[in-house]
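C-alpha cells please, single chain.
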Amino acid sequence: MSGGPREGRGAAGPRGAAPRPEGAPARQASPAILLTGVGKRYDIVSCFARLTPTIAVDPNPLAPARYAGTLAASAPPIADPEYVPALIRLCERHRVGAVLPLTDLDIEVLAIAREQGLLPALVPSSKVARATFDKYEAHLLLSSLSLPSPPTLLPHQDLQGLRYPVMVKPRRGSGARSIHLAANEDQARFFIDYVKEPTMVQTAMLGPELSIDCLGDLDGRCLNAIPRTMIESRGGESIKGTVVADEDLVDLGRRVMEALAVRGPATIQVFRDDQLGLQITDVNTRFGGAFPGPAYAAKAGFTYPELIVRLAAGERVQPHVGEFVPGTTFTRYFWQLELDQQLTPTGRDIVPGGPPPPRCNN
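Here you go.
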C-alpha cells in the first residue's frame, strides 16, 4: 500500500462517492459539526453527516469513521502546540458551530480552547474535564458534590478498612485496561505493584452495571438522561444493552450533569450495589460506546445528534429529561471498508449494497 489519503477524500457515502475536497467552499444552511478522534465510530459520524456538513478528524488515515463524514481531515498530535490552531482553521473554513471529542484524550484541551474563546467546543469546563479524566479526582469531585461514589483509596492509604473484594484501577485508564479484581489486601498490593502507572483501589460493586447517556446544553442544563443495561461489554465498551425506564437512574443522570454543568454528551457509569445502592464509577464527558441506545430510544426529532445540531445553530432547546422510549435493545457488530492504493473508498463491499437488513426473527 502506498501513498496516503488526500484531505477531504476520506468521507465517502455508502456507495463510495468522493466527498467535497477540503478547500472547496461549503454550501450549507446550518453550521457544520467537527468531530475529533473519530476512530471506529462510524455510527456517530454517519448520524451527524445525515443532518449537516460533518468534519471527521483523526490522525490515522485508516480510521474507518473518517470516511463517514462530509469531509475527512487530519490534525497534529493532541500535545502538539499546533493541534488547536489546526482545529481553528477547520472551524473558520467550514463554518463549524460545534466541536465534539469522541475520545477522552483531548477533552481538557478543547475545554481550555473554549474558555479562551478559540473553539465552539461542546465540552464541560477544563476543571471538570481534568477531574473526570482522573478517576480518583472524579471520586473526590463527586463526593464533594454529595453524589454517590464507591469508597476509594490511594495505594499509600490504609486499605484494611475497605470492603473486599476491591478493584485496582489505573487512575487514568480507559477501555477497562489493567483493571484487576483483588479478593484481599495482599492481592490488592500485588496488583498495585504489577500495574506500571498510578492506581487507585475502589470497593468492587456487588450488583448490576448500568449506564446513563445524557446531553447537556450550552448552559449545562441537562436536556435528557437515558439509562440502559450493560448486557455485555468488551474492552470497556458496551456492545449489547437495553434501554430501561428507571426514575432513579434518570434523576441521578440529571443531578450529575447539572452539578458538573456538563455541556454536550456524557455517559455516566453506575452500579446498583446490594449494600451501597446506586454508585457512580465513571463519568465520561463524551458519547459512550453504546451510542445506539439513546439514538434508538430518543423520540423522533430528539436524538442527541439532532439536538446538538440545533444547539450549534443557536437554538435554545428545552429540557425533556425522562422522555424516551424504553425497551429497545441493541447489539453491535463489525463491518468494513475497502480502500484503493490511494486510500480512497472503492464503494465495493463484501455484500453488494452494504450491510443487509435482518432477514429473520427469533
